[in-house]
Design goal:
Blueprint: E1 3-17, H1 21-28, H2 32-35, E2 38-41, E3 45-58, E4 63-67, H3 74-82, E5 89-95, E6 98-101, H4 114-124, H5 129-133, H6 136-143, H7 158-169, E7 176-180, H8 188-204, E8 207-211, H9 215-221, E9 224-229, E10 232-237, H10 239-249
Parallel strand pairs: 4-8, 4-9, 6-7, 7-8
Antiparallel strand pairs: 1-3, 1-5, 2-3, 9-10
Length: 254
Amino acid sequence: MAHIQLSNVSIDFPVFTTRSRGLLNTVLGLPMRDKARVEASGLRQVSVHALRDVSLLLRPGDRVGLIGSNGAGKTTLLRVLSGVYEPMQGELSFSGRIAALTDIMLGMDVDATGYDNIIMRGIVMGLTRKQAMGLIPSVEAFTQLGEHLQLPVRTYSQGMLLRLAFAVSTSVVPDILLMDEMIGAGDAKFFSQAKERINGLIEQVSILVLASHNEVILKSFCNRALVLKDGCVVMDGSVDDALAFHNVQQGVSP
């Protein structure tokens, strides 16, 4: 059974070395709300708290929206869940296949052909070579790139490259799907196809975690939401309650 559990997870990013917090604040001119997130460790190391003491349990059926201002910790949390970042403190445990639609170009080689990139991207996603080769028919059908798949990817337009990367990334149904905003690039036809494909993928996954600033998207796809602020989870509840809480925090009238 798919699940993700975080127990008191923290992530710190070292900024640079200095002997004086006063010097750091003077040079950078940090506002007070940011100074609270910067801490001098010893005499030399300065760290930014990207996540602080986050505990979370996700079970099958959870469709979780991540809400927060830029820099609140949403993307960092997604990267922890996907295994890109290892917790500096606390523990992460999970079961099931995880797919992250946060960097769909990962594992692609511009000097390799489209077909080779389908296989390489599939392997990066955790498939065997044979399984990755099995993705080719569905990718061919979705991208409609035809003979271009035999050419190096560096000859592709940006739109062609996006279609290829997106098609491969959404060809395998994971147990847990992580997304940082919805796909919003490409022409109108591609956007319509991508939206339909993502909708179908979301319906099949056991757990969804979606970071977005779009209230309509959050209400459409999520049944639970977390509000993050300064790397901390400050609210965990229904989507409506979480959005209302966040709007109050931001001084936005209902």
